Amino acid sequence: MTAPSRPPAVSKTLYRWQRAPLAEHLHALMPQWAGQALDISSQDLASNASFVNYVRHHRFTDPCTGQPVEVVEKSIRKVALLGSQEARFHREAGMLAGSTQFRYPACLGVIETPWESLIFSEFVRGKPPRMQAIARQLALGIAELEQLSHAHLQAQPLAKAPLLWSMDFFRPWFLLRPRFNFARCMPGLAQLGREDARFASLAQRFEAFIPLTRQLAREARRSPRCFSHMDYLRKNLFVDKGQLHLIDWSEVKVGRVGFDGGAYLGSLFRRKDMAMYLAAQDDFINAYREALPPHFATEQALRNMRYVFLLTALFHCLRPETLDEYRERERMPLLREKYDYLLGLVATDATSL
Ligand SMILES: Nc1ncnc2c1ncn2[C@@H]1O[C@H](COP(=O)(O)OP(=O)(O)OP(=O)(O)O)[C@@H](O)[C@H]1O
Ligand SMILES: [Mg+2]
């Protein structure tokens, strides 16, 4: 991993009317390089998120130290001149400076134009982890992220309230997204029940999740706020010498304590068989219970975890693409097993997730 000399402690945001050549942006962010030529070689990195124009890896030599520098530039398209969540998050990222669990690549700064946000951060090297194997480490990292970001939010002046309000998970621009609306998939499940006797009348039983998730949402809204990353995928994590590096804040929100655990377990549930999932879930929850500071009510955090777990798992397991995929791979018995597991949660307390 290589960072430029003296990376800023807190990322800065600069405003420009239009984009300039790359070297000009780098000079603006790192004034100690002013007047010095930068010989930059660049390469595109694979990215999929909507609104991301590109992600690029730039290499050059630090003119002050002669050391190699590797920087990632992420360009995010703006809608109606509104900045991305990710760029907004980087303005607050100094709050994570004291982290001991996760490592976060240093952010050199953000350039905002009316049309895009350009985020410059340190390039990280490492291996993508096996997601079920890092449950414990993730639990410790998430508990720390929640603790640090909660304290940061508590300390924010009133003037910041509108910005933080707009980033809250419970705003309609997030809640209306398909991924948080499994109820829309119910007709597809009813159809599956008509075609395949193993799935008959399941749609009716899944209806119970609609009032249940509403109730969990009502409770979560009133619980402690924190920043939630919400995107614990293999491609967003790197392991290097036992350290976990977390990148990609494109799904970040002002969430609630417990949400990130639900996001991780929800995406694990989608990808793994039940035995592997259940073992990782146990590891995660045991470590998370221990790591969560006492001033957060553990039972409420676990209910919040269940809320996001259910939203994520139900959406992924019920959507038509998933039904097609399991059908094609002749894995319908596994899908049925996952449905049984989910249906079993209707009657159990969230704290035994
Ligand atoms: N700081 C970094 N260090 C090393 N590699 C990075 C860094 N930032 C991004 N990358 C690489 O670029 C890829 C895309 O970046 P990122 O995840 O931020 O964009 P994205 O558009 O949100 O992508 P996706 O939706 O595919 O996750 C990452 O999966 C990773 O391989
Ligand atoms: Mg990513």
Chart the SSEs and their pairings.
Layout: E1 12-15, H1 22-29, E2 41-45, E3 52-61, E4 68-77, H2 85-92, E5 102-103, E6 107-112, E7 116-122, H3 135-154, H4 161-166, H5 172-175, H6 186-195, H7 202-206, H8 209-221, E8 225-228, E9 237-240, E10 243-246, E11 253-256, H9 259-271, H10 274-291, H11 298-318, H12 320-328, H13 332-344
Parallel strand pairs: 1-6, 5-10
Antiparallel strand pairs: 2-3, 3-4, 4-7, 6-7, 8-11, 9-10
Helix pairs in contact: 3-10, 8-11, 9-10, 9-11, 11-13
This protein binds adenosine-5'-triphosphate and magnesium ion.
Report how far apart the termini are.
Answer: 38 Å
Task: Name the structural class.
Answer: alpha+beta
Count of extended strands = 11
Name the CATH class of the largest domain: Alpha Beta
Q: What portion of residues belong to β-strands? A: 15-25%
Largest sheet: 6 strands, mixed
Low-confidence stretches: none
Mean pLDDT: 93
Total helices: the number is 13
Helix content: 40-55%
Annotated CATH topology of the largest domain? Aminoglycoside 3'-phosphotransferase, Chain: A, domain 2
CATH architecture of the largest domain: Alpha-Beta Complex
Within the largest sheet, what's the order of strands? Answer: 1-6-7-4-3-2
- Small molecules in complex: adenosine-5'-triphosphate, magnesium ion
Secondary-structure element string: EHEEEHEEEHHHHHHEEEEHHHHH
Whole-angstrom Rg? 22 Å
Please tell me the total number of domains: 2
Shape: globular
